[in-house]
Amino acid sequence: SHLGIVKANFKFTGEPLKFNAEANVKSLAGDAEVKGFLDITQNELVYDAKATTNNVDIGKIIKDESLRSSITGEFIVAGRGVDYRTMVNKISYNINNTVIFDQRIESSNGTINASSGNIDLNLDYKSNSGYAKIDGNVNIKDINNLAYNLKGNVSNLDISTIVKGSDNKSNLNFAFDVQGNGTDIDNLTGKLNMQMDQSMLSNYMLPA
User: Of 156, 149, 150, 159, nearest to 125 (Cα)?
Assistant: First the structure.
């Protein structure tokens, strides 16, 4: 196996369509422990689960080099439904010392509350690209015309770690407040307020 020797333990208690489950898996692609509850007797799927990972490599598991990673953290999800337009759930996570998409994430945590297409979020993110804190709301009920109201602070943002190339080296520091609708660049409506602190972009200093 490309995952080496896989050691796994599984435990199920309950009924075939309504049960608690526990899984513990160790392999060359990392370790994962999952505990949860699943009820598929209702009109909508009901779930409550917690997963803990240690150096999990998604790319190695599915044989996709573009997804090579090392994910360490804790993830909790509880709710009802899987259709983004109607589901009601809460997701929280806390990751550290993680690498994915060339991002070296020192720490990140947050909560995402979804209710019938309306999503409230609160996220903190610190990596080799910089630090960001974002709070707000996104409505995805009409996926072709998203509505959003987001506020945040960004510091030490280095664009070169995202778009690559030393010409894009930067250290950007700013606060933002964006409200609007749409995803098509030609049909966006809304407003953006940005407060720039002293920053650097491609060796040019940007005053506050």
Answer: 156
Q: Rounded distance, CA 183 to CA 75, Å?
A: 29
The one-character DSSP state at 197 is P
- pLDDT tier for residue 204 given thresholds of 50, 70 and 90: confident
Q: Note the pLDDT tens digit of each residue in 55-101.
A: 999 999 999 999 999 999 999 999 999 999 999 999 999 999 999 99
| Amino acid at the residue 170 | S
Query: What pLDDT digit, counting tens, does each position of 173-183 carry?
Result: 999 999 999 87
What secondary structure does DSSP assign to 100-131, as a single string?
Answer: ETTEEEEEEEEEEEEETTEEEEEEEEEETTEE
CB burial class (10 A; 0-12, 13-18, 19+) of residue 203?
exposed
Q: How many CB atoms lie within 10 A of CB 32?
A: 19
pLDDT in tens, 131-168: 999 999 999 998 888 999 999 999 999 999 988 777 78
Residue-wise over 44-80: b if at least 16 C-beta within 10 A, else e? eebbbeebbbebbbbebbeeeeeeebbbbbebbbbbb
Task: In whole angstroms, give the CA distance from residue 104 to residue 67.
Answer: 14
Looking at this protein, which amino acid is placed at residue 155?
A: S
Residue type, 34: V
pLDDT at 168: 83
